[in-house]
């Protein structure tokens, strides 16, 4: 994928850069336009740091009217636009293009309304995920989807990526917790979808927007559902001699009708890296470590803790600790939460993957990964949202060794192919971006992809918004719209009819 | 006038390809249990998917079920029950309200109408549980979207995108849903005698508490007696459902009772009675009167619903009751006129939302905007989306918008 091909920069746009920058300064007066290379460096990549590109110009609008004018201006002149929130995307969704205006939404950083009777918060898209919880926690509420990046990532970026987190097993993804958005289309039109009511009207455009990776519109306001904090939470830390037994334990917990607040698994390399880093007291002689968190009223949590403990024993657990207090619970989590940086300590670089598989395929996929690891000569550590089958293999490599990044990327692609092969998908929560773009045909036929691109045509017929992301090959909307009909004959003599 | 009844996806594709080639509109239906909703479709031919039936995959431990789109919902619910699982969003059954039988409807129809039930507040609607689809677009192309796993952001979420599209974007051939364990038990706490505004306050307190109330409804004076064989009597009843494991339900119920101690007299309905009660609320049994008096289904900001209804009562003779803490209001127009203008103007004044006319006589249906008219930019966007799926406008033409989708 290092051979990533992005859309060819438009020479006419590049030639008019000075004029475009000047016009942007008219639309967004003051400090909101950055065109000096030094200033733009901060925006040249997102969380997928292997890719860097300076944009044409960076614009930080403050009002919806400004966003609308920027997009309309660019639409009228055939100039590309890349939206950006906090730039934590792990798939290159916010990677700039040389000939595109980078619209950064970080100045949209106000919580607009807190409405407890309706249990919603209305926020500007640049508010961080955690910022929403902070705004309501004094009343005992919180916003449930909790990506590990929640201290930094923006709620607008969450909508664009349909982000998940540990709590999504029980409380749903971003898509299940967003009630409404306001957005600006590429032609400058401002559209509102949903609101404080529960069902959006008409076609579920909100469903399409969530997870659309900045290709359909720029989100300028978000209405999310907030929840009352559970009374208590306790966790179990369970070790297994094999990943099969750990996987079976997860299946049995769910078969018993228990949906834990969180259920995370780590494999041996991840356990060792995490333990060395945070000293959480993880057992080092196990192949799989499971953290199961139960939340709710105390009686429920106690009831379920004993149920889960019994299930774990039945499945051959060799260690099982139950958190006795809040501090212990946090310690159980500390290793899991620090898994990425912990792996960062044992390897100069790591590459985080994000496939999802049917849970029962875990042993097969882990075995497949082990043989791939040998084949490529690169280590891999696994952390895993066990409840919903979302894997995060971390491939260990050294970018300073020539060719190793390419090897890591090839290894990653093979893992994702394996995920698709067993009935899973390329990405569970990090998005396609540029990273998995060229793998899309592994999962979708050309007809499937064409229908998705036609949706893009309804929103942005000139492919100006975030082009080069998600779709391996851009096809013109006019071409996509053509129909190949089989007129004339009835091609289905055998279909019953009356 | 032909009715096609394909039994395999390939034949659905052939029918739609033919219809696209001939520019011949098709009415798409499953059991036809919701045929009375939407603008009457003007189509020469019918694509009846009820023979495209059968569960193709059910893995309880993976919480996933796939079925052909024409599979009866009742068959799926029965199957899930064997593993103590369910569709957590409790799809409502329009049968009784529309003068049909109970228990009809296909799984494809569940998605096409984006059905939900009283647990909407906690568990969402069909759109929140759909994982993947296979479908045939109005272009006569078979495509798929999504997958069979819960966590999936690979490409646009077209499975959600077609939820609530009433057969105007594509004919589904297969659907895959997330399924969930059914609650071990449930109890409903009923607070008696509250007027609408006090009921709204009580529901807001309950929903904002840590009692994890999964459904909150209010049945005003006179409506209460029409559900669950009249066991509630006529007095206003505010219903709060608590579900889960036995000890947890008992504890949370206690917590609720404390919180609402001053609200009014209380009563508790156990497991089966509670279930029957919520089924009736879900299916709008209070207005399943065999008449064709207009019935609206309103989606509103929950906390302002009662104020909206009060304002409406000043202008029109209506009966109303509330589900989803007020987020769903069912209205019966007692004078026989839909009063669409009045209803929709008031919605805008009370925090926004939308109104769907789910029951009305044929002439009223043909002359009223059944679905909420959208502002111009949004309407244009919806029309462009429709055209990208169905450029010749052959799938349920006119069902949602006159002359188009
Ligand atoms: C350490 C780390 C841990 C992470 N953990 C998780 C995790 O647990 N779960 C998870 O799901 N993700 C995780 N992520 C990924 C990332 O944080 C999420 O994808 C996040 O939602 C991105 O938000 P952002 O504001 O940084 O968006 P950006 O990175 O700025 O942009 C992401 C995409 O959204 C688009 N976009 C941003 N804002 C808007 C807007 N207002 N309107 C339209 N499009 C917009 C961009 O064009 C881009 O395509 C992690 C990332 C890091 C670095």
From TrEMBL, chain A:
Its cofactor is FAD. Residues 51-229 form the FAD-binding PCMH-type domain. Keywords: FAD, Flavoprotein, Oxidoreductase. One of its GO terms (molecular function) is oxidoreductase activity. InterPro entries: FAD-bd_oxidored_4_C, FAD-bd_PCMH, FAD-bd_PCMH-like_sf, FAD-bd_PCMH_sub2, FAD-linked_Oxase-like_C, FAD-linked_OxidoTrans_Type4, Oxid_FAD_bind_N, Vanillyl_alc_oxidase_C-sub2. PANTHER family: GLYCOLATE OXIDASE SUBUNIT GLCD. This is FAD-binding protein.
UniProtKB/TrEMBL annotation, chain B:
Keywords: FAD, Flavoprotein. Residues 1-182 form the FAD-binding PCMH-type domain. GO terms for molecular function: catalytic activity; FAD binding. The keyword Phosphoprotein does not apply. The keyword Zinc does not apply. It comes from the Bacteria. This is FAD-binding protein. It comes from Oryzicola mucosus. The lineage of its organism: Bacteria, Pseudomonadati, Pseudomonadota, Alphaproteobacteria, Hyphomicrobiales.
């Amino acid at each position: 994928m290092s051979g990533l091909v992005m859309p060819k920069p438009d020479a006419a746009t590049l030639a008019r850069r000075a004029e475009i920058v000047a016009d942007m300064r008219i639309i967004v007066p003051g400090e909101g336009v950055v065109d000096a290379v030094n200033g733009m460096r901060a925006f040249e990549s997102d969380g997928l740091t292997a890719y860097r590109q300076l944009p044409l110009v960076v614009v930080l609008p403050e009002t919806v009217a400004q966003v609308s004018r920027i997009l309309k201006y660019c639409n009228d002149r055939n100039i590309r636009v890349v939206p950006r929130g906090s730039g934590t995307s792990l798939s290159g969704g916010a990677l700039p293009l040389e000939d595109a205006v980078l619209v950064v939404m970080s100045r949209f950083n106000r919580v607009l309304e807190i409405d407890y009777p309706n249990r919603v918060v209305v926020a500007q898209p640049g508010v961080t995920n955690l910022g929403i919880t902070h705004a309501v926690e004094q009343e005992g509420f919180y916003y449930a989807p909790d990506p590990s990046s929640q201290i930094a990532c923006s709620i607008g970026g969450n909508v664009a990526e349909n982000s998940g987190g540990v709590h999504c097993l029980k409380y749903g993804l971003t898509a299940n917790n967003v009630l409404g958005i306001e957005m600006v289309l590429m032609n400058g039109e401002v559209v509102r979808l949903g609101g404080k009511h529960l069902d959006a009207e008409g076609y579920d455009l909100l469903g399409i927007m969530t997870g659309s990776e900045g290709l359909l519109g720029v989100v300028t306001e978000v209405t999310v559902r907030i929840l009352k904090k559970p009374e208590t939470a306790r966790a179990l830390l369970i070790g297994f001699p094999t990943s099969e037994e750990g996987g079976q334990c997860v299946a049995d917990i769910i078969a018993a009708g228990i949906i834990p607040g969180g259920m995370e698994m780590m494999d041996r390399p991840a356990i060792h890296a995490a333990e060395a880093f945070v000293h959480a007291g993880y057992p080092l002689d196990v192949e799989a470590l499971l953290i199961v968190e139960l939340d709710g009223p105390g009686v429920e949590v106690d009831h379920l803790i004993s149920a889960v403990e019994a299930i774990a024993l039945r499945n051959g657990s060799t260690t099982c600790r139950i958190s006795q207090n809040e501090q212990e619970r946090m310690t159980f989590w500390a290793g899991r939460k620090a898994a990425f940086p912990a792996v960062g300590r044992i390897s100069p670089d790591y590459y985080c993957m994000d496939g999802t598989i049917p849970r029962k395929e875990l042993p097969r996929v882990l075995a497949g990964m082990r043989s791939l690891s040998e084949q490529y000569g690169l280590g891999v550590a696994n952390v895993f949202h066990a409840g919903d089958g979302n894997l995060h293999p971390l491939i260990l490599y050294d970018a300073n060794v020539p060719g190793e990044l390419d090897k890591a990327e090839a290894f990653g692609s093979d893992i994702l192919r394996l995920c698709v092969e067993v009935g899973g998908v390329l990405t569970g929560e990090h998005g396609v971006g540029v990273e998995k773009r060229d793998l899309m045909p592994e999962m979708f036929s050309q007809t499937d992809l064409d229908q998705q691109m036609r949706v893009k045509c309804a929103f942005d017929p000139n492919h100006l918004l975030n082009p080069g992301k998600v779709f391996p090959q851009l096809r013109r909307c006019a071409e996509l719209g053509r129909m190949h009909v089989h007129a004339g004959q009835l091609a289905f003599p055998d279909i019953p009819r009356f | 006038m032909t009715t096609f009844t394909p039994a395999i996806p390939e034949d659905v594709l052939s029918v739609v390809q033919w219809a696209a080639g001939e520019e011949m509109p098709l009415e798409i239906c499953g059991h036809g249990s919701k045929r009375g909703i939407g603008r009457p479709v003007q189509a020469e031919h019918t694509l009846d998917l009820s023979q495209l039936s059968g569960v193709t995959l059910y893995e309880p431990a993976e919480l996933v079920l796939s079925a052909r789109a024409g599979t009866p919902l009742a068959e799926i619910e029965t199957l899930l029950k064997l593993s103590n699982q369910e569709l957590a969003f409790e799809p409502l059954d329009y049968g009784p309200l529309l003068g049909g039988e109970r228990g009809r409807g296909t799984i494809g129809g569940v998605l096409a109408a984006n059905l939900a039930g009283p647990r909407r507040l906690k568990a969402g609607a069909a759109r929140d549980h759909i994982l993947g689809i296979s479908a045939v677009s109005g272009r006569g192309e078979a495509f798929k979207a999504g997958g069979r796993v819960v966590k999936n952001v690979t490409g646009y979420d077209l499975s959600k995108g077609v939820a609530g599209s009433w057969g105007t974007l594509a004919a589904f051939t297969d659907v895959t849903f997330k399924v969930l364990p059914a609650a071990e038990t449930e109890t409903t706490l009923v607070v008696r005698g509250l007027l609408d505004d006090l009921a709204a306050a009580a529901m807001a307190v309950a929903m904002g508490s840590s009692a994890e109330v999964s459904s909150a409804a209010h049945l005003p004076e006179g409506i209460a007696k029409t559900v669950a064989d009249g066991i509630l009597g006529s007095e206003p009843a505010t219903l709060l459902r608590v579900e889960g494991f036995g000890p947890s339900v008992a504890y949370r119920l206690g917590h609720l009772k404390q919180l609402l101690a001053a609200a009014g007299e209380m009563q508790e309905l156990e497991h089966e009675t509670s279930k029957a009660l919520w089924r009736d609320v879900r299916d709008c049994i209070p207005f399943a009167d065999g008449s064709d008096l207009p019935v609206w289904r309103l989606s509103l900001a929950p906390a302002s619903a009662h104020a909206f209804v009060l304002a409406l009562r000043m202008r029109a003779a209506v009966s109303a009751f509330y589900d989803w803490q007020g987020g769903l209001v069912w209205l019966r127009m007692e004078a026989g006129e839909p009063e669409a203008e009045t209803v929709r103007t008031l919605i805008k004044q009370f925090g926004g939302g939308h109104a769907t006319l789910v029951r009305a006589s044929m002439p009223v249906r043909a002359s009223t905007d059944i679905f909420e008219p959208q502002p111009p930019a949004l309407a244009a966007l919806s029309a462009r989306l429709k055209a990208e799926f169905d450029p010749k406008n052959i799938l349920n033409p006119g069902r949602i918008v006159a002359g188009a989708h």
